[in-house]
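Figure 2 data, in text form.
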Amino acid sequence: MKSNHAADFRKLLEPLARVHDTRQVFDAFVTLAACALAAETREEEYLETAKHWQREHLDVFAQALGALILEMEIKPFVDVLGGYYMEFALSNKSQQWLGEFHTPTTICDLMAGLTLGDLNQLPQARPFTVCDPACGAGAMILSLAKALPPETRSRLRVTAIDINKTACDMCFINTTLWGIPTRVLHGNTLTMKFWHAWSNFPLLMSPMCRTTTEQPAEQGHPPKLIELEQIQAAIPNHQPELVLV
């Protein structure tokens, strides 16, 4: 097999997709990758997913993650995963039934600019928060981070929500690898019902943002009431768009 330096994560996953369902392979890949990037705070979830795959399959997933990271390095703040998910892992029928569609990067960039407005109006000495109530793979969050100068980007804190667990894992991967402190919630913004929540490594390591809802012991648990109240206050109309809090 070619080394990761010449590999394409898509090509690495293709042989598995010939034996297993493409969506099943992709879901396992992003779950295992998200857990691997969680600094040993999602070990139980990793083991639960890994037990359904043979050792050689797990090796392929590991190689695919390495290839993904290398590709992301040459495509700063680009949602590589989301495009592949929509084109190959999700069928056209599923897109219609589930209402899942990939927002083009140009639209993400536009919405990020509209959300941020005048950068001089952003807080200058403290963190500021953005909530994405329908984050998908996190493409809009990446556009938002890309639009910020590095010194301002370091103060960005994100709450990302999606009803699709696969989307949550993709967003977790994207925000972790680009160092964006993010709280990812698996749930329905319209009904305010949530099943799981995870804090990525940049958030866990951020001394300005630590709260009792962001400890490793809480990984994968439903968010607490105080966190839901904060989200509801931030997006009272439950609009599926970026909200600067």
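Caption note: The first helix runs from residue 9 to 19.
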